[in-house]
Known about the structure:
Blueprint: H1 14-33, E1 39-45, E2 48-54, H2 59-66, H3 70-96, E3 100-108, E4 113-120
Helix pairs in contact: 1-3
Amino acid sequence: MAVSPQEEAPRPVRGEILAQISTGLVQLHSRYYGKGPTKAKTHQVNDTVVAILRGGFTRVEHTLLETGQIESVYQMRRTFQQVMEDEFRRIVEEATGRKVIAYMSSIHVDPDLAVEIFILEPLDEPVALEDHASVDGDRPDLPDTA
């Protein structure tokens, strides 16, 4: 089907975008660790993308964990995430079409979980008034109705 210059190509459905992120992150782990997570699920709430990866520890990491070397596994994973940050960001940016402005990662030992968190650059769309509460719960100045 031809698309005229005025028509834009259809945007991927949200579920397809999230599946693309999950797949990309699993593939990245598989490529560089030699083993990837056995399950992955990605969620998006507003400008936040969270991927939960299950079952991704390597045999070496399991051995370290079994011998009480938990901090060694944390340190190795932190170092890997810092080195690979651009690759992780690229996966999310390509899937969403939006810039990642922050990336955080953490692991949990039992159960074997990793979480990847991406904060996207806000869209230039007006936000509902109730979304403007400050940290202390104050509401933005509202016009007096009295």
